Amino acid sequence: MTLKELEIFLELSSTQNVLKTAEKLTLTQSAVSQAIKSLENKLGERLFDRVGKKLVLNERGRLFKDMTLKPYNELLIAKNQFLKEKISGILHISASKTIGSYLLPALIFEYLQKNPLVKIEKEIQNSKTIVENIKNGKIDIGFIENEIDDKDLITVKIKEDELIVVSSYKYKESFIDELKNEKWLLREKGSGTREIFLNYIKDICKINIFMEYNEFDEAKLLLSKYPKTLTCVSKEVVKEELNLKTLHHIKIKNLSFKRNMYLIYHKNKAKTALFNNFMEYILYNFKKEGIK
């Protein structure tokens, strides 16, 4: 079977109409019909049932779609990467700490290996600064960890993230107000992590923000040295420490801290070949990891 036959099959399974499929793929109806017939001949069985004017996948057709959709998409990515191997340019991106320090580095490294003529300049900033820089045209793509509502920006959800309370001391499962007088370490103002956590608890209690920090390593050091201190961070940040049991996840009764992570860019951003290629790569890889 060919990539073109798979493309036509997958499109027809969606439209359920030969004419609509032909128009979508800029083909003749005859070409669509011939491609499906060729595919079915190669497989030795029919994939569609005719219901009125619609062509509907039968039970074998549904199975074939499930088996081929992911490999087809991966082949398209590989094809596009190969055809665009001469993509070049300098891409300016900015990411909040969790995304920029824990989720993006390996992806960027692998992208640069595949695209040696590309240079990516990455900065770590808080979400508020990233939004401002996108609006001012200082960066091409931003990655943030909180909700925004701005008519000038396009936002694309890339990941659902869980924030957890951690400490080097093994607190029992507690209500948040039972911990309000403990020494809390929180990120600086403007941080998405800080704003989301405080927003979750604002109607319950006001915690004792004993100290602010800018770097996660700073917080980890303080938590280890001073056991009865707590912070709220993305689970991504403390995976290793939780596995080694140098930090502990403190369960909070009746509360879970969820947030979405977003890719953002200006609605008037010129979509160059490099921009589109990098966007496609990032979104594909986040999806591949099973991100909600």
Short description:
α1 (3-15) crosses α2, α1 (3-15) packs across α3 (29-43) and α1 crosses α4. The two termini are 32 Å apart.
Task: Describe what this molecule looks like in 3D.
Helices cover 44% and strands 24% of the residues. The chain is elongated. The protein folds into three domains: 3-83, Arc Repressor Mutant, subunit A (Orthogonal Bundle), CATH 1.10.10; 89-157 and 267-288, Periplasmic binding protein-like II (D-Maltodextrin-Binding Protein, domain 2, 3-Layer(aba) Sandwich); 160-259, 3-Layer(aba) Sandwich (D-Maltodextrin-Binding Protein, domain 2), CATH 3.40.190. Strands 3, 4, 5, 6, 7, 8, 9, 10 and 11 form a nine-stranded mixed sheet that branches. Strands 1-2 form a two-stranded antiparallel ribbon. It has eleven helices and eleven strands. With 292 residues, the protein is α/β, with parallel strands linked by helices.
Total number of helical segments? Answer: 11
Large-scale geometry: elongated
For CATH, the homologous superfamily of the largest domain is named as Periplasmic binding protein-like II
Structural class: alpha/beta
- Determine Rg (CA atoms, Å): 25 Å
Judging by the overall fold, what is the CATH architecture of the largest domain?
3-Layer(aba) Sandwich
Estimate percent helicity. 40-55%
